[in-house]
Design a protein that fits this description.
Layout lengths: L4 E4 L5 E3 L3 H5 L3 E5 L9 H4 L2 H7 L3 H14 L7 E3 L10 H17 L2 E5 L5 E2 L4 E2 L17 H7 L4 E4 L5 E4 L4 H8 L3 H5 L9 H8 L9 H4 L18 H11 L25 E3 L5 E2 L15 E2 L13 E3 L3 E7 L16 E11 L5 E11 L2 E5 L5 E4 L6 E3 L2 E3 L2 E7 L11 E3 L3
Parallel strand pairs: 3-4, 3-5, 5-8
Antiparallel strand pairs: 1-2, 1-4, 6-7, 8-9, 10-22, 11-17, 12-15, 13-14, 14-21, 15-16, 16-17, 16-18, 19-20
Length: 425
């Protein structure tokens, strides 16, 4: 599905994707940028009087320059998509459709223009400056939640500095981009698709980024996780929990549960240079923020070690996750007297590869509380060298033996009730 509206790169008028002019030449460029204080909105650009009287103003400069880059290509591009003015955000249905489709729109663009409004390009050194607005820090573009998918989705991307000087392509700048974002070069150059990265890795890429609306931390990851869900602004942190619940319905990647309490707080939810601190004694299997995955970008799912689970190995059931836990014997859940063990270790189908070349299985500690379990020691995971989820051999064939466990998921956190600390850069 193409974008619903596109900007004509010559007249700056908005056209619908069903218009004859768009159908005749449907190729488009797309803009990736950080929103500023004064942006051109849908209501502005659809007003002919406003458009005619404001073409030369600062708010229109970003759109004018992007349109010029598109027109000046060897094969000119007639259309541009920009998130500030091509979506009617007063239309709830359109907004939901757009947020769920945005990744695909960036994917299908002929070129994505990455505009970094706070850096300069040094042609003699062939390098990008630090942010001119924030001493010794990288461009704020690298800290925004939405720009993560805008970096990874396009097939081809060009970067420009604050004066619209060409800095390079994504491939050409891949060393710099890898250094700043923590995303392995192979995913930036196309040597590997980001879909090959584990869920924990992709969550880790979002760690430390922020959005204007708290819910957008979750919504900006929809395309990266290949899922869709309804959009409810006002639900707060619950959006990220709902994102993970939706992922459980379509994914068997157990690295979703490979996370720990972040040492620097929930930086994705920082406001006014203050970061909420979250450090519970026990919790469930779903994290409240991508920051929890910051230490686990290196978690992988290995086909040669992966043990297939029974159908529906884990699922969401009434504020809890019911997990079919792999066991070598019943004594791993119950003692020799048949009583439930107070604490158990849950092995996940994911691993960390250490410097010694060995793969270490990721495990979580659980403690029984009534009829359900809670995760404990959330500031760490248990890693077991060379191990994998258990199987039993029956007639020479490995078979998974499971015992059901239910891990309670607490209510979403209330950011207003959390202690705050100064944000660490």
């Amino acid at each position: 599905m193409p974008p619903r509206r596109l900007i004509n790169t010559t007249t700056y008028e908005l056209y619908k994707n069903g218009d004859a002019e768009v159908k005749a030449s449907p190729h488009y460029a797309i803009l990736s940028h950080r929103w500023g204080k004064a942006e051109v909105t849908f209501q502005m650009l659809t007003n002919p009087q406003w458009r005619e009287s404001n073409l030369g103003t600062e708010p229109m400069k970003k759109i004018r320059e992007a349109c010029k880059k598109a027109r000046d290509r060897d094969t000119p591009i007639e259309w541009l998509w920009c998130d500030t003015c091509c979506i009617d955000k007063d239309n709830t249905e359109e907004l939901t459709t757009s947020l769920n489709s945005m990744f695909e729109w960036y994917r299908k663009a002929i070129v994505c223009y990455g505009y970094l409004a706070d850096v300069d390009w040094d042609p003699s050194l062939q390098q990008m400056s630090k942010s001119v607005d924030r001493p010794n820090q990288e461009s704020v573009w690298f800290e925004r939640g939405w720009t993560l998918q805008e970096l990874l989705a396009p097939r081809y991307m060009e970067f420009f500095d604050r004066n619209w000087t060409f800095m390079g392509t994504r491939d050409g700048l891949s060393d710099k981009l890898q250094s700043v974002t923590g995303i392995a070069k192979k995913y930036l150059t196309g040597a590997a698709t980001f879909k090959q990265a584990s869920v924990a890795t992709r969550m880790g890429w979002m760690a430390g980024r922020t959005t204007t609306e708290i819910e957008d931390i979750a919504y900006s990851m929809l395309g990266l996780l290949n899922i869709s869900m309804p959009i409810y602004y006002g639900e707060g942190v619950k959006a990220f929990i709902r994102l993970q619940r939706t992922l459980i319905e379509s994914s068997s990647d157990e690295s979703l549960f490979a996370w720990t309490i972040p040492a620097n707080g929930l930086t994705c939810y920082r406001r006014d240079n203050k970061t909420p601190v979250w450090a519970p004694n026990s919790w469930g299997l779903l994290a409240p923020s991508p920051d929890c995955f910051s230490r686990y970008r290196d978690v992988v799912v290995l086909p040669d070690l992966y043990v297939p689970r029974l159908s529906g190995s884990y699922k969401w059931v009434q504020r809890a996750i019911q997990f079919e836990m792999p066991m070598k014997s019943g004594t791993e859940v119950t003692n020799f007297f048949g009583r439930a063990r107070k604490e158990v270790t849950l092995p996940l189908n994911c691993w960390r590869q250490h410097d010694d070349g060995k793969s270490w299985n990721v495990n979580l500690k659980l403690r029984k509380n009534g009829h359900v379990y809670s995760r404990i020691d959330c500031d760490d995971v248990v890693e077991k060298r060379g191990s994998k989820p258990s199987t039993n051999s029956v007639m020479g064939v490995d078979q998974v033996v499971t015992r059901p466990l239910t891990v309670a998921q607490p209510d979403e956190i209330d950011l207003e009730q959390l202690p705050m600390q100064d944000t660490q850069h």
